Amino acid sequence: MDHIDRKILEIIHGNARITISEMSRIITMSQPAVTERLRKLEDQGVITGYRAVLSPSKLGKYTTAFVLFKSNNCKEFEAFVEGASEIVDFYRTSGEYNYLLKVVTATSETLETFLETCNAFGFSSTLVVLSTRFEDKSLVTSHDASNIISLFHPGES
Question: Of 3, 38, 5, 46, nearest to 19 (Cα)?
Fold first, then answer.
């Protein structure tokens, strides 16, 4: 993967609906070349999908929390989590807690009700989000690409 691939990734991370022609113009590369690079990035599994980013508040979801959860019955808890629409991200973790959940609910009251339901599977520690500085930050930036180029080709970038 070179700096052009990284630029393509940065562009589609910012706007997955961008046209090939617009991306080609930004990168100053032909449309067939950009299309081929995108196809290769998809085939290699670097790009695993494209999605819409939804606004929780526009969907009536105003409360976000991160929940550290400790369960003695992981299989039952994981089965419960599969059906819990409040959980938008779910991680298995090391340390005192088995899991980290990102939970999005309408209100603090609905968060409380959800957490009470979880109590049947173990115990938790909850961190309510007060504000969000950023989410889903790109794993690739132009700055990264420039640094990589300068590592392998000093004097260029």
Answer: 38
CB 16 within 8 A of CB 47: no
Give the pLDDT of residue 157: 44
In the numeric block, which tokens belong to residue 28?
């100053």
How many CB atoms neighbour CB 133 within 10 A?
Answer: 5
What is the CB neighbour count within 10 angstroms for residue 123? 13
What is the pLDDT at residue 155? Answer: 53
| The pLDDT of residue 98 | 97
Q: Which two tokens stand for residue 122?
A: 């173990």
User: What distance in Å separates the CA atoms of residue 156 and residue 140, rounded to the nearest whole number?
Assistant: 19
H or E stretch including 27? helix 20-27
- Token reading at 109: 């009251």
Task: In whole angstroms, give the CA distance from residue 121 to residue 56.
Answer: 27
β-sheet bridge partners, residue 67 = 101, 126
pLDDT tens-digit series, residues 60-95: 999 999 999 999 999 999 999 999 999 999 999 999
